[in-house]
Each structure stands twice: as C-alpha cells, then as structure tokens.
Amino acid sequence: MPHKRRSQSWTELKQAGNERFKAGQYGEAASLYTQSIELLEKKSGQKNKEDLSILYSNRAASYLKDGKCNECIKDCSTSLDLVPFGFKALLRRASAYEAMERYRLAYVDYKTVLQIDWNIPAAHDGVNRMTKALTDIDGPSWREKLPPIPTVPMSVKESLAQAASSAPTAQQNGLNENKKKVPGPEAVKKAKVLKEEGNALVKKGEHKRAMEKYTQSISQDPTEVTTYTNRALCYLSLKMFKEAISDCDEALQLDSSNIKAFYRRAQAYKELKNKKSCLEDLNSLLKIEPGNAAAQKLLQEVQKMK
Predict the structure, then answer these.
(1) How much is the pTM?
(2) CA distance 123 to 94
C-alpha cells in the first residue's frame, strides 16, 4: 500500500486531500497535501506557482481547522509569495491571526480582501470584529498602530474576480458572487434600515456610531452607492482620510459621475496634502456640475497649496 501511494500523481494526492478535508479528517488531509506539494516541487520546482499556491492554501485550511494557527499562517504566507493577493489564503491567514489575538495583522488581511472583492461577507464581518477589538485595546487612535495595508493593483482585482466567477466551489460560501449581483430583498430591506439609523446618528453628530451602522448596511447590500458616500463623510469627520478615499473609490465604481464621491475624495486628498489627486477630482466634478459652489471654493483653496 505505501508503494502505491508513492506512485500517485500530485493531482491524485491533492484530490485525496480534498476528500479527506470534506470528511473532516483534517490531519490526513494535511498529510496528503504535504505529499502532493513535495511531489510537485520535485517535479517542477517553482515553475508551477499557481498549483503550488493552491496546495499551500489548502494545507493551511487543514491546519486552521485543527487549530494549528502558526502552521496555517506560514502556509498562507508561502501561498501568497507564490501568487500575491489570493483571497482564500488572505482570509485563512486573517482567521489564524484573529484566533491568536494578533488583531492588527488580521485587520490588514481582511481589508486587503475587501480591496479584491468588496462582496465577501466574511471579510466585512472580520473588519467589524477587528475594529471593535482594536478600539477596545488601543482606543480611538488604534489605526495609528496598524501595519501598512497593501494596495491591490487593478489588474490583480480583475483577474482574481474573473477566476473566482469561473471556478466556484462549495467551500467559498458566497465568495464567487458576481460583484454586480443584486442582493436579495430581505438583505436590501435590512441594509436600508441600517443606513437610515446611520443617517439619524450623523444628524446627532455621532459619526463613529454612524460609521458602524453604514458598515453593517454595506455588508447586507454592497451595491448601494449612497451608503459608501455617507460612510466616507463619517470617515472625514473622524480624520480617517484613507478610508474615506477607499469608500469614494467604491462609490465611483458603482456610479462614475457621483458628485459626493468626487467631492469627499477631494476633501480627503486635501487633508493628506495630495494636491494633484485633489485637483483631478475637483476638475472631474466641475465638468459634471460646473456651478457647484462648494467644489469651486475648495478648488480655490487647493490651488493656493504649496
């Protein structure tokens, strides 16, 4: 029997690992993935990066299920070195970091996943949990202690979104939903209620609580433009300028001529002393709405910046 196992191809070993994983036999699955990795590395070295990346990510999932968080993190990092910005590896590593109470690193991975595809509920939920945990630990200035969040190139987003939609698996649990897929009526209803609660809090000047409501609303319905621009307003009030820019980016992906998104992103760029980007956004806005007094005023202020 051992001799027969050695003669199996790496793909057969991988498939056997997948079957063990589905059956809840995580230790055996990890062992089979290990054999598959060794065989593939021996056969092709580092040439077969995509297949190796998947194998390391699969073994990481087995380790995570068995509570072996350090091994999971190591394998996810190897997987991401082979193929950067693989969202499964990022999600698994985030879960392992979270389990080890390494909340800052978990937050960074969850946020990176949302750059790749904002329609991933597990990443939204993770960001919400990490935000709460880090606020409890570090107070209002918790963001200052975060490691840098990598910027996902647009080319990577497009290729990963395409790969996700063409290769669905049961384990992804909604990760393959098309970005433009409209949420169900129940989710839309919940999202609307949460957004209105956020709006009420903004009127009271409670921007932090409003931001949390908008985040919950977006997790229900990530296709509603105004929720992003409303949350961007909260981020501006909370001096979270990079987050404001990110939300305006999302809004403009949904509506490329959204006035509020251009204006609020320009405000954030101004605070970050990014004069060039700020002017570009204000000029784009004024092409759409030449008589916008607020944009004209901000443009005059920014033109005086050194």
Answers:
(1) 0.54
(2) 9
